[in-house]
């Protein structure tokens, strides 16, 4: 949450529609911080109903009934997606052109947790994924507290999926969790 508080500014949020992908509040939520910055709306989506979930929906189905958002936040969700590529495609599709995505996810060495838990992402892998998606990286850094990746990226105005993006994603080196 410290990264979200540092990376997400009033300029990112004020008057914007915000989507949180993976909003079930299991061990904290960025909602309070984001709400303090004055969004037009905040919609938390997750696969299951619960605290922090406004709409039960798979991230892979974004934007679905929601309009593209001025900010999409996803903290520690991507590792739980059965198909991380489909989930990330949906998350990126939900970001309005010219606006930002803030995402965190674990790296190798982060222990297995809260099943389902499938994937680990290195800084290099996330850099390759973000570049292949045609996003502008604003911040990409390792989590200083535990093995993880923290990203803030902007979808350029006029953005479209780059040719071959999904082939590059498949080759990016995302590792599966093994027990």
Give a count of the beta strands, DSSP E runs of length 2 or more. Answer: 9
Order of helices and strands: HHEHEEEHEEHEEHE
Might you state the CATH topology name?
Rossmann fold
Output the strand order for the largest sheet: 3-2-1-4-5-8-7
CATH class: Alpha Beta
Shape: globular
Q: Summarize the main sheet.
A: 7 strands, mixed
**Total DSSP helices:** 6
Gap between N and C termini = 27 Å
CATH superfamily: Vaccinia Virus protein VP39
Beta content: 25-35%
Q: Give the C-alpha Rg.
A: 15 Å
Number of discrete domains: 1
Please characterize this protein's 3D structure.
This protein is α/β, with parallel strands linked by helices and 179 residues long. The chain has a single domain (2-176), classed as Vaccinia Virus protein VP39 (Rossmann fold, 3-Layer(aba) Sandwich), CATH 3.40.50. The chain is built from six helices and nine strands. It has helices spanning 2-7, 10-13, 31-35, 84-94, 123-132, 165-170, and strands at 17-21, 41-46, 55-56, 69-75, 95-106, 119-120, 135-142, 148-155, 175-176. It has a seven-stranded mixed beta sheet. A two-stranded antiparallel sheet has the order 6-9. Helix 3 (31-35) links the parallel strand 1 (17-21) and strand 2. The longest helix is centred in the middle third of the chain and has 11 residues, at 84-94. It is globular and about 40 Å long.
């Amino acid at each position: 949450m410290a990264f979200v508080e540092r990376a997400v500014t009033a300029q990112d949020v004020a008057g914007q529609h915000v989507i949180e992908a993976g909003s079930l509040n299991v061990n904290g939520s960025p909602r309070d911080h984001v709400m303090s910055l004055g969004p037009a709306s905040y919609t938390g989506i997750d696969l299951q109903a619960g605290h922090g979930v406004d709409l039960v929906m798979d991230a892979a189905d974004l934007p679905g009934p929601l309009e593209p958002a001025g900010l999409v936040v996803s903290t520690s969700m991507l590792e739980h997606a059965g198909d991380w590529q489909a989930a990330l495609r949906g998350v990126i599709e939900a970001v309005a052109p010219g606006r930002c995505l803030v995402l965190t996810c674990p790296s190798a060495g982060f222990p297995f947790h809260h099943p389902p838990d499938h994937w680990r992402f290195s800084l290099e892998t996330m850099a390759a994924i973000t570049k292949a998606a045609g996003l502008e990286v604003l911040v990409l850094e390792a989590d200083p507290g535990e093995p993880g990746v923290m990203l803030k990226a902007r979808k350029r105005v006029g953005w479209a999926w780059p040719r071959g993006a999904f082939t590059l994603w498949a080759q990016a080196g995302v590792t599966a969790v093994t027990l």
